[in-house]
Amino acid sequence: MNITENQLSEGDNQPFLTGALGLLAALFGFYILGPLIGSVAAIPFFENGLSDMMELGENPTGDVSFKIPLFIIQGVAALIGLIIIPWLFLYIRKDQPSKSLFPKSPGIQGYFLTALVVFTFMGVNSFFIEWNASVHFPEFMKPLEDWARKNEDMLAEATTFLTTFESTGQFILAFFVIAVIPGIGEELVFRGIVQRKLIQGGLNPHIAIWLAAIIFSAIHIQFFGFVPRMLLGVLFGYLYFWSGDLRVPMLAHFVNNGLTLGFVYAHQMGWVDFDIENSESPTLVSVIIFCIITTIVLVVLNRYFNLRKADEPVEGSF
């Protein structure tokens, strides 16, 4: 079973246009409408109301009391831009998202193998994370590199600020905003709309998977994390293509973000010595081992989904 066979929505004669419009609608919701609504929702959580909100715009990490309002703004923006608007968009386009995106549960084994391959792929991707972070531009592109480095440093500072937890409640809120909502929403947009519509339009599935992954990574505007995020997008893309059910890449995305956040919290609490944010460089041997294990699990996953392709869809199952 794959999305070329089971998720071709009826009546969509312009899938490329649908994909482009769906992406634009999501971006509008995430960058404009969502933050506006989120800012209003966050007002009661500012100690000094609107004056704090004005200061937040100038220095988001300047006051620890800004953390909860920031999570609310980010969470509402993601919920509206990545889930509500894309879902309504597909519904208006008569795409029947509940049926076309979730035709059949991947089963317990499918869920387990998906979580496992994400864990092993983290070991592979650690190499690309370190490599991409150390890339340098040619001399004539130094102004662009300086801008990209400054932007990366600002995002890293914001991430550290948001993931330094003062309470379990903050961790739970962060987990929902950073792991749960993006796991659902980003996969709905980039795999459920962009990748699926590219394939429906006749584009080679492999090209569609890579193109959707490139767009997925580029949207984050983080050059020094572009390659590892793109590779994650490729992994999620193939998981969706093989399984035909969006729950698979959603779970994969959630596990990736959730594990990272969980390790951060566990280290802060003193439960583990491993610091995922400042870990040592991966050895070549460890990367090769993780690569071999990941390849084996991917082969097993592909065969597992192929064995299920002849089964009748079971709608409504988890």
Total E-strand runs:
0
Any idea how many domains?
1
Order of helices and strands: HHHHHHHHHHHH
Spatial shape? globular
Average the pLDDT over all residues and give the rounded result. Answer: 90
Given helix and strand content, the structural type is mainly alpha
Q: Alpha-carbon distance between the termini? A: 17 Å
The poorly predicted ranges are 313-318
Question: Beta-strand level of the residues, as a percent range?
Answer: under 5%
Summarize the amount of helix as a percent range. Answer: over 70%
Number of helices: 12
Give the biggest beta sheet: none
Cα Rg: 20 Å
Which helices and strands occur, and which strands form pairs?
Blueprint: H1 3-6, H2 15-42, H3 50-58, H4 67-92, H5 97-100, H6 107-133, H7 142-162, H8 168-200, H9 205-219, H10 226-243, H11 247-268, H12 284-308
Helix pairs in contact: 2-4, 2-8, 4-8, 6-10, 6-11, 6-12, 8-9, 8-11, 9-10, 10-11
List key phrases describing it:
318 residues, 73% helix, globular, disordered C terminus
Care to describe what's here?
- The chain has 318 residues and is an all-alpha fold.
- It has one domain.
- Helices cover 73% and strands 0% of the residues.
- The radius of gyration is 20 Å and the shape is globular.
- One of its GO terms (molecular function) is metallopeptidase activity.
